[in-house]
Known about the structure:
Elements: H1 30-40, H2 50-63, E1 73-80, H3 95-105, H4 110-117, E2 121-128, E3 139-141, H5 159-178, E4 183-189, H6 193-204, H7 209-212, H8 221-236, H9 243-250, H10 253-267, E5 272-274, H11 277-289, E6 297-299, H12 308-314, H13 331-349, H14 353-357
Helix pairs in contact: 1-2, 2-13, 5-9, 5-10, 6-8, 6-9, 6-11, 10-11, 11-12
The protein binds alpha-ribazole-5'-phosphate and nicotinic acid.
Amino acid sequence: MRETDGQRNPHLTSFSPLFQPPALTPLDPATEASLRATIDGKAKPPGSLGRIEELAVQLGMIRHPGEPRGEKAVLLVFAGDHGLVAEGVSQYPSAVTVAMVMTYLAGRASANAFAKANGMDVRVIDIGVAAELPVHPGLRDAKVRMGTANAAREPAMTAGQATEALNHGIRIAIGEIKAGADIIALGEMGIGNTASSALLAHRLAPASLDDCIGVGAGQDDAGMSRKRIAIEMAAARNDATAPLDVLIEFGGLEIAGMAGAILGAASQRRPVIIDGFISSVAALLAVRLCPEARGYCVFAHRSAERGHDLVLNALDAKPLLDLGLRLGEGTGALLAVPLVRAAARLLTDVASLDDVLAGKI
Ligand SMILES: Cc1cc2ncn([C@H]3O[C@H](COP(=O)(O)O)[C@@H](O)[C@H]3O)c2cc1C
Ligand SMILES: O=C(O)c1cccnc1
């Protein structure tokens, strides 16, 4: 479905539920106690592997009655542009989005380096870059439109486009899992997307607008006041709070793609690793659309971006790492992959203390 860019389409989703999320199985709390008992019974003092034990329980619940695997992990980087950039919300122009997409395809971005260090593939998805991109074997064309409209002045996208972007994310994650991925990690590229994310966090957490606005890729004082004014203009234009409406009003396409990928991974009962502020906002959107998705999300790290903590709190999430990262691209998610793999192996590979003491090993 393709609709005219910038078309005003303030459908109230409560009357017109265009988006049909996939059926998700909630994690079964009845399996938690037995997984904990199994991990407590391993050849180590109970609790001695701290947060990795909690992660192992979560992975066990996700795959129950099967066993978790962590071999094949794939990073999906969703790229899209933001009309809000016209208001000066970012220190950088939208041209940086396309330049970084070309850098991912050349294998030379931070995300590629971290993926290579972990033996992972990177897939780049053009879901809404505001430029025609060359055909490239590493690039998926899922372009919904050439960037969002300027949300300070009009809805970022139509209801049909929001639905299309969510469905692309669902389809792409399911495709990767059917092709053998055990773990999906998420990343994004989109100049201006911390402004869009601030608006989504404000309405979906909910939280005061001011608490959701941060420096993004690095704004100076003058830039921060432009960013605040543009965000306040966008917020004053509407009072949407329903998740699909908030996405339609504020964007972005890459955030919708990530939210869809979370729902797609959850529908296939696979863990999905959430990166920083922007990815966590996508997780908040996914969870507001489908609360059962929460159990499938592993939160990689605490970003230095203001607003991330409140989004994590709204999701009742405790991230694994705290490294002062504020890049995005999936860099934090990539760094958490070895922890997820190790937690899966704790469950599948480590002997029980009973077997060790009985001399069975
Ligand atoms: C060279 C460069 C590479 C990036 N990689 C990720 N981001 C990050 O910064 C952007 C969000 O910040 P803002 O809202 O302030 O524009 C997103 O593209 C995000 O992925 C980058 C930003 C830049 C400049
Ligand atoms: O935490 C993030 O995801 C982030 C923060 C700043 C800029 N880009 C991404």
